[in-house]
Design goal:
Layout (H helix, E strand, L loop, with lengths): L2 H27 L2 H27 L13 H30 L10 H30 L2 H30 L4 H28 L6 H14 L5 E10 L2 E10 L5 H18 L3 E9 L8 E2 L2
Parallel strand pairs: 2-3
Antiparallel strand pairs: 1-2, 1-4
Length: 299
């Protein structure tokens, strides 16, 4: 089991620990805002489980049915996570509106509310440490599933901070209306986050091109290692989870042998793979009559 699988599996255990702390906090305090925060942690646990399965599925090699591999499974899991976040936002909104219509006094800070805030704060610290770890691993491994999980946890930490500050003020000044109002703010915040997660993942599913800086670097490497060719044009590249797919046309002199053209392609592919691990490269070799005088002109 590699580090990514270990991290994803550990996320489930840590998510369960955080969820128990937050459920206890919501139970002893009777707070709608703390209940909302706990509900978001339920989504954390479920999304971590989905991310683990997506990583397992995405790591499977290409086969006769999926000839380009299973990398998009991670993107699908990220979409599912975003959808669950949106469902949680709706549930929180419904409960908060109901509480606004039927306000009830908060339990005192010296009693259940104070205890609930302590356990909620403890859960927030655990989430913050783990979110930073997940974010680092997701960047290193180029994992959309872990990146979505980390983003959700960071959002959860910000939510926890807002809940703690608002409920502390509500308890000190006896303003029970702050409790459902904070819950409404949580619903809006996680709905926005869920929408962003869905949209960014859908971009990957629709074969979004990488940033212009990546394309520029690819062209630079081709120019440096295509000695003997004339030009390279019609570059196309897409990202699917941790996998990248690159294709372009390489124009060589019409009299060049197949072996010589193949050697040029090998040099280019070796240079590209040194910087872009896991990239799948397709080079279409053409004779000089197909030159367009555009793209990468080789000196």
């Amino acid at each position: 089991m590699n580090s990514v699988f270990k991290i994803a599996a550990a996320s489930i255990g840590i998510g369960c620990l955080v969820l128990l702390c937050k459920l206890f906090a919501a139970e002893v305090s009777g707070s709608t805002a703390l209940f909302s925060d706990a509900l978001e942690s339920v989504v954390n646990v479920v999304s971590s489980a989905i991310a683990l399965y997506a990583l397992y599925l995405g790591a499977k090699p290409a086969d006769a049915t999926h000839q380009y591999g299973h990398a998009k499974a991670e993107l699908i899991s990220a979409v599912a996570t975003g959808a669950m976040i949106l469902v949680a936002a709706v549930v929180i909104f419904q409960r908060a509106v109901g509480e606004l219509w039927h306000l009830k006094p908060l339990v005192p800070l010296t009693g259940g509310l104070g205890l609930g805030l302590f356990f909620n704060g403890l859960a927030g610290v655990v989430n913050l440490v783990w979110a930073l770890c997940l974010k680092r691993v997701a960047r290193r491994e180029r994992s959309p599933a872990l990146a979505a999980d980390a983003q959700h946890l960071i959002s959860d930490v910000l939510t926890t901070l807002g809940v703690l500050a608002a409920l502390l003020g509500a308890g000190l000044f006896n303003w029970p209306v702050l409790d459902p109002l904070v819950a409404l703010a949580i619903a809006a915040q996680i709905a926005l986050m869920g929408g962003k997660t869905v949209m960014s993942s859908l971009s990957g599913l629709l074969d979004e091109a990488p940033p212009p800086s990546v394309k520029t670097r690819v062209e630079e490497l081709v120019r440096q290692h295509a000695e003997g060719a004339i030009e390279a044009h019609d570059f196309r590249m897409r990202q699917a989870g941790a996998s990248s797919f690159l294709e372009f046309h390489l124009v060589v002199p019409g009299t060049m042998t197949v072996n010589a053209a193949h050697e040029i392609c090998d040099r280019i592919e070796k240079a590209l793979r040194q910087e872009m691990h896991g990239v799948v490269i397709t080079i279409h070799v053409e004779p000089d009559v197909k030159a367009k005088n555009e793209g990468v002109l080789v000196a």
